[in-house]
Write a structure and sequence with these properties.
Elements: H1 2-26, H2 33-54, H3 64-85
Helix pairs in contact: 1-2, 2-3
């Protein structure tokens, strides 16, 4: 169940970044950075970072890029802690 959730939220983050890039190129209203970062924070950080590189989107935008990396790092620490403390 967790794997399905993570797959969906990462797909959503990837798609949102791609959609935002397209809207930026057309000069249309954008997806708020808060929304993109929220998708990353709820588990979609890998999808967001992959999209950032694939679409060359927000790669120079700071503090967005740094915040995205902090989110990824925090999630990696949570997973590492869980693995280290998991019984058996």
């Amino acid at each position: 169940m967790i794997a399905l959730y993570l797959a969906l939220v990462n797909l959503a983050a990837f798609a949102a970044m791609g959609w935002d890039k397209g809207r930026a190129e057309r000069g249309e209203r954008r997806i708020p950075e808060r929304t993109l970062l929220t998708l990353a924070a709820i588990g979609g950080s890998l999808g967001a970072i992959t999209a950032q590189q694939a679409f060359r989107h927000k790669t120079r935008k700071q503090p967005f890029g740094a915040t995205l990396l902090v989110i990824l790092g925090a999630q990696a620490l949570v997973v590492a802690g869980y693995v280290a403390l998991a019984p058996g």
